[in-house]
C-alpha cells in the first residue's frame, strides 16, 4: 500500500463527503437556523409590541381612572350643593310654616281675647244692673233698658 494512494483516496472521500454535505445537509440546516432566527426575531418583536401595548393600556387605564375620579368628585360636589339647597329650602319652608302658625295662633289669641272681653263686658253689665237694682231696691228690666246697657258695654 502506497501512502500517496491512501492520502489521495482519503482526499477524494473527503471531497465527496464535503460536496454531499454542502448539497444535501447544509441547505436544510441553514433553512432551519434561518427559520429559528426569524421566529426568535418575531417573538422579540411581539414582546416589544406587547410591552408597548401594555404601556399604552396602563396610560389609558390611568387616564380613565383620573377621569372617573374627577367625575366622582364633581358628582359629590353637586350632591353636596343639592343637599345644601334642600336643607336651605327646608329651613325656609319651616320658618314660613312657623310664621304662619304663629300668625294663626296670634289671630286665635286675639279672637279669644276679643270674645273674653265681650263676655266680660256682658258680665260686667249684668253685675252693674244687679248692683243698680240692689241700690235702687227695685227690679230693673233688662229688655226695657237694652239701649242703656249697650251704651254701658261700649264704655267698659
Q: Give the strand tally.
A: 0
Question: What is the terminal separation in angstroms?
Answer: 173 Å
Percent of residues in helices comes to over 70%
The biggest sheet amounts to:
none
Which shape, going by the Cα principal axes?
A: rod-shaped
Any overview of this molecule?
With 156 residues, the protein is mostly helical. It has one domain (3-155). The chain has helices at 3-136, 146-155. The longest helix is centred in the middle third of the chain and has 134 residues, at 3-136. The radius of gyration is 60 Å and the shape is rod-shaped. InterPro entries: ATP_synth_B-like_membr_sf, ATP_synth_b/b'su_bac/chlpt, ATP_synth_F0_bsu_bac, ATP_synthase_B_chain. Belongs to the ATPase B chain family.
